[in-house]
Amino acid sequence: MKSKQEIKANKRIWIMLLLLLIMICVGILGGAAKISLRDFQELILGDSNTAAGRILLYVRLPRVAGAVIAGAGLAVAGAIIQTILNNPLAGPNIIGVNSGAGLAVVLCGLLLPGTYFLLPIAAFMGAFFTVIFVYYLGKKTGSSKITLILAGVAVNSFLGGITDAVYTFSEESLIAGNAFKIGGLNGVNVNILKYAGVFIIMAVTIVLLFHNELEILSLGEETAKTLGLPVSFYRFLFLMLAAALSGAAVSFAGLLGFVGLIVPHIARMLVGEECKYFILASALLGALFLLICDYIARTWFAPYELSVGIILSFVGAPFFVYLLFRSRRRNRNA
Known about the structure:
With 334 residues, this protein is mostly helical. The protein has 14 helices and no strands. The mean pLDDT is 79.
């Protein structure tokens, strides 16, 4: 029999799913060019030769799908990283995971142009080596929460500098590089989206299948070992999944920040700490959050369009400062 907390979490997850579906419809139909339900119906029936049909097929649908996939991937990656590192200040962009993925994508794009299927793989490799390096760097230098964040910030800055240097020596890609560093969903390419989408869907599914093991890891290393969990194996597995999620999102959406930091905190407040609900809520809220931010970026400032990365910075930077002060107060009271 389910507890009251589980019943409440289930209800809230269904509400999140409903809100996500509503926001998907708003994102598809809303924008600078007005699209009606009839236009969408005609596209479904196979008529894509109209102006509205082409906008839906080549602009709106890929963009909305990209927001859903990237938002879910970054949020779940953030939830995993915060759980594994036991650090509420950690996030894919804060500790340099996104920068590692971004550098790998830039190098792959310059050295092997047009190989869309390789970009998520390159991003995964860059993100994975970065998260492993930051984890062990933090462990070797004291393993405190602030030390880990500082190590991540240092790695983030270093990798960002290398990326800037690569763009400096490749002047023809400088404008595209600026857009990539800010992060955005304008001009999402279906060719790369389908590969990244497979990565993210598979990774989220695996995390949900192993939610019990993640739950045990969240209790701490010593407790997990006492309960018979092979800690090293599962820590490696979940960090690899977090790298796959953030890397795949970065491969087509650029260096979007703060989704993986903000959303897990909101999900935890709404459904609690139990990983089964926490991960699912993070995925749904991440998709919803990025959809809303992208809709604001492309409609509130019309006829101009902001990058969604700028909107995320406006929201995320104050939230990060709030977390810093809250963490400091907790340390004082401990």
